[in-house]
């Protein structure tokens, strides 16, 4: 929609807009190079790189190639112009020797590569790359200086090549392709020997490798000359978003660079080099986050971790060391120890052969060449699996679920999904297990399922049939060390499925004549039911991949989901014993592995963990009849109440009486069809970005009065929050973040310290402010507590922010009889003692953004322009009537429907029995 990137239809996140390419139009027109480059491996690119790239090589074993790094990554520049006498020229040095010598060195380093191909690329980069030209400039100057020194009968002066890095270079060039004299300069020092300051200086001789800052714009083109043959600058901190003063983040830049478009993109053809690029760029993104965390310990409230202070003091006393520095890693960092703990408190498959991947590969590519396709398709498959299980209820009603995303040793993604079924649908008996689809048997030989089980659901084989299988481990048994399968295969024969009293399940594996023939080390071997991995035949047929399904019966299943996530290395622990520091950032970086699929997953901001939200709702009424009988019209008092009726719609315009009649018909359910749906008029349907349609004009023209009389309504809070964040981003001006101060207390009003601060921050009981309140001047907000009824400061009052201070926000009231008056809103302490096993106290401004609000909160409001987000349908009696009646005519309303809704039909929940007259 914005940048021409190609997507799967299911990847839409907002109307016809996508997030994982240009972030809904924020990042467009980046100068991603479009020059043809030779096919080959990452080693081929190394020959032309000015920087010393990542040198990790995955062991040559069976399976797809996977580039992977461990620990910290550095980008180093060879700062010697000439190679040592006993060394071949490398990196930038190949551009200062003659072509024959350069070709000899490159052919030696790239055995098996076509020499003519090497020569062609060498000439292209030599002629058009500013970094190569910079080395050649220095060599020419060196030759001239040697000749001058010979004529003047003196020693030649050392010549230096100075690369310009940092903000000055970034600001001057922006997106443009640089020239050699813009990125570097050759200096011949004068009598005093001084040259201008520079971060990177190339000398004539030496063995030093200079570490470059990953934020320098020249790091990426110097590391990947095949992707940037013209030396186009990479990301740098001064890049600005399209039509905005906001900066482009490194993550947004990389998302844009790896998006699939109709134009040629060399990065996507890089194969193994593409894998390196993804890992390298993600490590830079993560490095930026780690630096921010290290420099902002106060903002993440590191001082609140008193238990670590106590531990460090005890260690200092034991080891006789001074008290070291504490650096805390918050739970927002995926796979950090607190991340695992947080998700524990909250509480698939190899994809290479999927047609969605194979059909979208470029010519002569394999799935391992395209980690971007692998993770995008895998994520859509996960969503499809959840659709089958949760929405279609193939196992019954699911009341809770959770899963983390993990990557195998070679980088392939998979999930471990834990489901909790409702009481009536739990698998309690052997018949439940078999009838509801957990099988560990070989199917009929001539069936489609037989081929799928043979392809995806046979373990190993291992044991005596294949002693070198990866699942084999050495154990001590009866005093002897033997090798056995860590998964317990082959299983014992079992005639019928058996569920024991404690819930342990043994699946039926009868000793029958059904066999599957496989090849093991060139020999044909027959396997029986003992080798079948438990699975669901329906899911196996639908998704055609390995999906292991097991019945579990203990809380240890939750621990299993996270047991692989964080394993601190011995090296980090040894360092802590010799230095009394507690640096969780360094420990995290030193202990990590990063592979291409995980890197792309994180770059595209896909969730590493997901779970169901279990609402704690007290059922007041069991049936619709009970709900109707609880209304005031069914009360005994209704008979004696005096009733008044409006003779006309006070909100509708005089010229829009037809609109008023339509509202009455909708409110009474007279437009409803047999499915309780109505068809909306075509003129009120929004086909674009709803936030843009409602607010863009008033924001662009700075008509804040018009903006105050506009709002977007939605049935659910989650949609309201998304829209509010979107509109706040559209509003010009500086954004101010106000964070709350939270703590928990027990029934004796004593502070409880066992809950993570981050856990408390995430809680949002009804009527509470959020932990992080983001505001701008002129933002529309709503009061969520009664502060002073006489002054119009009631729960639900809409206001516009006029001034923001640390502990006081000045607003102008927009609704009620006090509209136009100034209000002063202080921070207050809110307390919730009903929803949790502790009292939650939060000190924060009692405000929420109100560009958008729930339909229920909008009752009583009259607006000039109304947007209604019905991607999620209404669910309560009269909600649709309330939403539509906030406006004064059909042309003041814009309704956003789900993109799959082409007939304009929406749900209209009306309990007609409530509307029946009762005297």
TrEMBL record:
The protein's superkingdom reads Eukaryota
Q: Name one Pfam family in it.
A: Pif1_2B_dom
The record's InterPro entries line, in alphabetical order, gives:
Helitron_helicase-like, P-loop_NTPase, Pif1-like_2B_dom
Q: What are the DNA helicase Pif1-like 2B domain coordinates in residue numbering?
A: 758-802
Instruction: Please report the stretch or stretches of sequence annotated as the Helitron helicase-like domain.
Output: 254-419
CDD domains found in the cross-reference section: SF1_C_RecD
Name it: ATP-dependent DNA helicase
């Amino acid at each position: 929609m914005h940048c021409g990137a190609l997507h799967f239809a299911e990847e839409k996140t907002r109307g016809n807009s996508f997030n994982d390419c240009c972030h809904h139009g924020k990042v467009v027109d980046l100068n991603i190079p479009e020059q043809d480059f030779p096919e080959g491996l990452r080693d081929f690119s190394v020959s032309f790189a000015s920087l010393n790239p990542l040198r990790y090589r995955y062991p040559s074993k069976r399976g797809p190639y996977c580039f992977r790094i461990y620990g910290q990554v550095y980008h180093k520049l060879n700062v010697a112009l000439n190679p040592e006498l006993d060394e071949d020229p490398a990196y930038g040095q190949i551009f200062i020797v003659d072509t024959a010598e350069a070709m000899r060195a490159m052919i030696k380093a790239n055995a098996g590569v076509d020499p003519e191909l090497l020569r062609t690329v060498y000439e292209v980069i030599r002629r058009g790359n500013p970094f190569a030209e910079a080395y050649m400039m220095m060599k020419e100057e060196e030759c001239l200086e040697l000749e001058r020194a010979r004529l003047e009968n003196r020693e030649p002066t050392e010549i230096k090549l100075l690369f310009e890095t940092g903000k000055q270079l970034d600001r001057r060039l922006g997106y443009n392709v640089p020239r050699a004299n813009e990125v570097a300069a050759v200096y011949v020092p004068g009598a005093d020997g001084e040259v201008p300051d520079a971060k990177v200086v190339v000398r004539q001789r030496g063995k030093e490798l200079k570490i470059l800052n990953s934020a320098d714009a020249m790091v990426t083109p110097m590391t990947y000359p095949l992707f940037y043959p013209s030396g186009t600058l990479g990301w740098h901190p001064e890049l600005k978003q399209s039509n905005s003063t906001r900066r482009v983040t490194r993550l947004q830049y990389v998302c844009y660079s790896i998006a699939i478009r109709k134009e040629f993109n060399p990065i996507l053809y890089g194969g193994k080099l593409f894998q390196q690029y993804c890992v390298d760029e993600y490590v830079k993104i993560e490095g930026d986050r780690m630096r921010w965390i290290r420099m902002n310990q106060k903002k993440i409230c590191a001082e609140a971790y008193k238990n670590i202070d106590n531990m460090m003091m005890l260690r200092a006393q034991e080891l006789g060391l001074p008290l070291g520095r504490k650096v805390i890693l918050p739970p927002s960092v995926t796979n950090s120890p607190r991340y695992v703990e947080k998700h524990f408190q909250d509480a698939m498959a190899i994809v290479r052969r999927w047609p969605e991947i194979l059909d979208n590969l470029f010519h002569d590519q394999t799935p391992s060449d395209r980690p971007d396709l692998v993770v995008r398709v895998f994520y859509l498959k996960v969503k499809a699996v959840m659709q089958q299980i949760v929405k279609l209820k193939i196992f019954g009603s699911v009341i809770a679920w959770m899963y983390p995303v993990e990557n195998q040793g070679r980088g392939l993604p998979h999930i471990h999904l834990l489901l909790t079924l409702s009481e009536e649908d739990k698998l309690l008996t052997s018949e439940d297990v078999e009838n509801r689809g957990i099988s560990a048997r070989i199917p009929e030989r001539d069936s489609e399922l037989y081929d799928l089980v043979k392809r995806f659901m046979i373990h190993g084989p291992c044991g005596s049939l294949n002693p070198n299988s990866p699942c084999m481990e050495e154990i001590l048994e009866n005093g002897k060390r033997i090798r056995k399968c860590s998964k317990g295969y082959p299983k014992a024969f079992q005639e019928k499925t058996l569920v024991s009293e404690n819930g342990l399940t043994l699946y039926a594996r009868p000793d029958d004549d059904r066999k599957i023939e496989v090849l093991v080390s060139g020999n044909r071997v027959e396997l029986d039911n003992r080798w079948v991995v438990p699975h669901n035949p329906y899911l196996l047929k639908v998704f055609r991949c390995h999906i292991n399904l097991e019945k579990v019966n203990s809380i240890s299943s939750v621990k299993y989901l996270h047991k692989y996530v964080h394993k601190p290395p011995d090296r980090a622990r040894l360092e802590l014993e010799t230095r009394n520091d507690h640096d969780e950032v360094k420990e995290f970086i030193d202990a990590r592995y990063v592979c291409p699929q995980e890197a792309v997953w994180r770059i595209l901001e896909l969730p590493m963990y997901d779970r169901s939200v279990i609402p704690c709702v007290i059922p007041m009424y069991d049936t619709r009849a009970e709900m109707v009988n609880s209304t005031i019209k069914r009360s005994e008092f209704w008979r004696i109440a005096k009733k008044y009726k409006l003779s006309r719609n006070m909100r509708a315009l005089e010229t829009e009486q037809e609109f008023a009649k339509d509202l009455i018909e909708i409110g009474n359910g007279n437009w409803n069809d047999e499915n309780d749906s109505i068809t909306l008029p075509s003129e009120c349907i929004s086909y674009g970005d709803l936030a843009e349609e409602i607010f863009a004009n008033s924001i662009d023209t700075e008509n804040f009065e018009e903006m105050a009389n506009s709002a977007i309504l939605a049935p659910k809070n989650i949609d309201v929050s998304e829209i509010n964040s979107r509109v706040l981003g559209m509003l010009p001006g500086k954004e101010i973040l106000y964070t709350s101060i939270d703590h928990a207390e027990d029934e004796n009003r004593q502070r409880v310290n066992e809950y993570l601060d981050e856990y408390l921050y995430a809680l949002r009981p009804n009527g509470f402010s959020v932990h992080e309140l983001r505001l701008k001047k002129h933002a529309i907000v709503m009061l969520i507590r009664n502060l002073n009824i006489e002054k119009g400061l009631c729960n639900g009052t809409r206001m516009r922010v006029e001034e923001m201070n640390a502990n006081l926000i000045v607003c102008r009231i927009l609704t009620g009889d006090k509209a136009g008056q100034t209000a002063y809103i202080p921070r207050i302490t809110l307390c919730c003692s009903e929803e949790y096993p502790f009292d939650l106290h939060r000190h924060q401004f009692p405000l929420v953004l109100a560009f958008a609000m729930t339909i229920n909160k909008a009752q009583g409001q009259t607006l000039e322009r109304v947007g209604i987000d019905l991607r999620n349908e209404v669910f309560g009696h009269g909600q649709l009537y309330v939403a539509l009646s906030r406006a004064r005519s059909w042309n003041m309303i814009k309704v956003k429907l789900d993109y799959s809704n082409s007939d304009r039909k929406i749900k209209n929940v009306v309990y007609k029995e409530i509307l029946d007259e009762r005297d």
